[in-house]
Amino acid sequence: MKPDADAINSEAKLIMSRIIARRIAADPGIVNRGLAWYADWPLEDRATKPAVFWIETLEQGPEAVRRRLTARDEQAYWMRGASPLTFAHDLDCLRDVEFRRRIWRDAKRLVAMRMRRDLKAFSQGMMSRSEAIQRLGVSDYAELLVALGEADLRIPMPREAVIEEQAKVFVKFWKK
């Protein structure tokens, strides 16, 4: 099972956002430059949902911006895709194509490691079927089983007590 491009891109954006968050800690003026960047926009463009959220966040100050950049919720996910801070400061490394490729490769490796960890947890019975399907982004149990096979992992077995209880129920029905 190969990592999904959307998951890799999301992880890469998070890595870049963490770089920006560290830079803001060293230079809080980046937040003001982000606001100034939006000030140059036409009024109708500043009224878009991502712009409104970013302007509100930037107005709350550097710590609020750092928290929003590194948060792992849905709003932070889509706000990272529209971050003005990539353009609003002098962090040239984020514009460097080779640096961005390196970040993408690192993100791909992280996503693959996370998928392997989740598959292993499911295989060892430490994660439910529905949670594994959701976390791995597969469509159904069949796809999850294929991923287990590709990773050379076993299908999870019920605990011994559950198997014994099922055997007792089977014997009970068999005798009837």
Q: Could you tell me the number of beta strands?
A: 0
- Separate helix tally: 10
Question: Which residue ranges are poorly predicted, with pLDDT under 50 across at least 5 consecutive positions?
Answer: none
Round the mean pLDDT to the nearest integer and report it.
88
What percent of residues are in strands? Answer: under 5%
H-E order: HHHHHHHHHH
**Main sheet specs:** none
Show the helix and strand layout:
Layout: H1 5-26, H2 29-39, H3 43-46, H4 49-59, H5 62-70, H6 74-80, H7 97-123, H8 129-136, H9 141-150, H10 160-175
Helix pairs in contact: 1-5, 1-7, 2-4, 7-8
What does this structure look like?
The chain is elongated, with a radius of gyration of 23 Å. The protein has 2 domains: 5-97, no CATH class; 115-175, no CATH class. The protein is built from 10 helices and no strands. It has helices at 5-26, 29-39, 43-46, 49-59, 62-70, 74-80, 97-123, 129-136, 141-150, 160-175.
Characterize this entry briefly.
The protein is mainly α.
Q: What are the defining features of this structure?
A:
71% helix, 0% strand, 176 residues
